[in-house]
UniProtKB/TrEMBL annotation:
The active site is at R299. The chain holds residues 1 to 463 of 1151 of the full protein. This is Pyruvate carboxylase. Coiled coil: none annotated. ATP binds at K123, E207, H242. Catalyzes a 2-step reaction, involving the ATP-dependent carboxylation of the covalently attached biotin in the first step and the transfer of the carboxyl group to pyruvate in the second. The gene is pyc. Residues 127-324 form the ATP-grasp domain. Residues 7-460 form the Biotin carboxylation domain.
């Protein structure tokens, strides 16, 4: 393929909160001018003030709809001569139509192609691609389930427990565990109607439900010329209701051989798919060390920070350089091959949210009367709207700040995290800080002996 590098002068971030600010920082370091868009409800949000230019979008629309308004965002981008749009995560990040409309308007979408977004947005198609690439997948149905008979047939062959998943599901939603045949019909009906209302499509499929696996995911970066490398793995097993809460890079409980196999499987899959830009391949790993593909996230992830800490590679800047047309080996990126990526130390990320652990993690809202963060050597903070006087609104997700710690060893990184979490002083709104403190000093966490059911099965975390 012909090499054409087009430097960006101006980048718009079609997002809000911490990830918008994170992307502005990356752009500014690269000498790129930044453009924010913000909703009416976000007039006082920090991301608006952290960009070189900021424009109101979605007037008269809802708080979420503003950030989903493809045509309005493109209008701003064109009017202010933006070269490229970074979608962050959430909102339009996995909307193939948005990526396509950017292309049509001559604006570069900083991410994979619309076809790849489409393929990996559908878990059934993603599974088909994994099978084609020779990646182990969890035994499951190849096509969407059309009838109860098909579901029963699968259950007879594989046995229980099973998990019914929405093809277009995400964010831990659209999944239903089935433990016996008398639950199957009801679960299938509910899964389909939930899939329809949440994702606009009734397609569901069935997988064997794995008891107590670990969630291990591999960060991939690939340029437009077929060069693909991995930045090692993250262990995202500490989850609440299938949503990640604490992440660790690299995983401290994978034997070296298994780590290599998983990372190589991820590379092979993304190469087979012809994937470009940053993406993550997610796996479940059983206690017997079998690993299985679950999905690909074709975007930057919340937990990319810890991979940056252990590899020294700025993933967001790499995304931008790739979108400009650079090859991985160009000096702008400077990765000559896999051998150049050498992980150093261990990093842990905690998602500090305004959720109240004492009230079943109900999101709290209001004004931050006091906000002081922890810090110090080896601590990275990615803050959305954490400052004294900030209003925490009910409109958006409850992530307040991401705290990442880095140290030479896992135990030091965990101690550093605990010390930092304790330094925070937040008043006016409840947070999950006390719960996170319990997690990072729990013996099972410190031993690396945790799986995706750790929180559900460890009542002393709630004390
Ligand atoms: P989402 O797209 O909503 O994040 P994923 O497919 O990535 O959904 O799964 C999220 C989490 O759900 C996994 O990390 C794991 O904890 C659980 N999960 C998904 N599939 C299975 C399965 N077949 N068996 C056991 N747990 C599963």
């Amino acid at each position: 393929m012909d090499r054409q590098v087009k430097r960006f002068n101006k980048v718009l971030v079609a997002n809000r909160g911490e990830i918008a600010i994170r992307i502005f920082q990356a752009c500014t370091e690269l000498g790129i001018r930044t453009v924010a868009v913000y909703s009416e409800q976000d007039q006082a949000s920090l991301h608006r003030f952290k960009a070189d230019e900021a424009y109101l979008i979605g007037e008269g629309k809802g708080p979420i709809e503003a950030y989903l308004d493809i045509e309005k965002i493109l209008e701003v981008a064109k009017r202010y001569q933006v070269d490229a749009i970074h979608p962050g995560y959430g909102f339009l990040a996995e909307n193939a139509q948005f990526a396509r409309r950017c292309q049509e308007e001559g604006i570069i979408f900083i991410g994979p192609t619309p076809d790849h977004i489409h393929m990996f947005g559908d878990k059934i198609e993603a599974r088909a691609m994994a099978i084609k690439a020779g990646t182990p997948v969890i035994p499951g149905t190849i096509e969407p389930i059309q009838s109860l008979q098909e579901a029963m047939q699968f259950a007879r062959e594989q046995g229980y427990p099973l998990i019914i998943k929405a093809a277009l599901g995400g964010g831990g939603r659209g999944m239903r565990i089935v433990r016996s045949s008398d639950e199957l019909e009801d679960a299938l009906d509910r899964a389909r109607s939930e899939a329809k209302s949440a994702f606009g499509n009734t397609a569901v499929y069935i997988e064997k439900y794995l008891e107590r696996p670990k969630h291990i995911e591999v960060q991939i970066i690939a340029d437009q010329y077929g060069n693909t490398v991995h930045l090692f793995e993250r262990d995202c097993s500490v989850q609440r209701r299938h949503q990640k809460l604490v992440e660790v890079a690299p995983s401290v409980s994978l034997p070296e051989e298994l780590r290599n196999s998983i990372c190589n499987a991820a590379i092979q899959l993304m190469k087979e798919a012809g994937y470009c830009n940053a993406g993550t391949v997610e796996f479940l790993v059983t206690p017997e060390h079998q690993f299985y593909f679950i999905e690909v996230n074709p975007r930057v992830q919340v937990e990319h920070t810890i991979t940056e800490l252990i590899t020294g590679i700025d993933i967001v800047q790499t995304q931008i350089r790739i979108a400009e047309g650079n090859a991985l080996s160009d000096p702008e990126i400077g990765i000559d091959g896999q051998h150049e990526i050498i992980p150093n130390g261990v990093a842990i990320q905690c998602r500090v949210t305004t959720e109240d652990p004492a009230r079943n993690f109900l999101p709290d809202t209001g004004r931050l009367l006091a906000y002081r963060s922890g810090g110090g050597f080896g601590i990275r903070l990615d803050t959305g709207n954490g400052y004294p006087g900030a209003i925490i609104s009910p409109h958006y997700d409850s992530l307040l700040v991401k705290v990442s710690s880095w140290a030479k060893t896992y135990s030091q990184a965990a101690k550093k995290m605990h010390r930092t979490l304790r330094e925070f002083r937040i008043r006016g709104v409840k947070t999950n800080l006390p719960f996170l403190e319990n997690v990072v000093q729990h013996q099972d966490f410190l031993n690396g002996q945790y799986d995706t059911m750790f929180i559900e099965c460890t009542p002393d975390l709630f004390e």
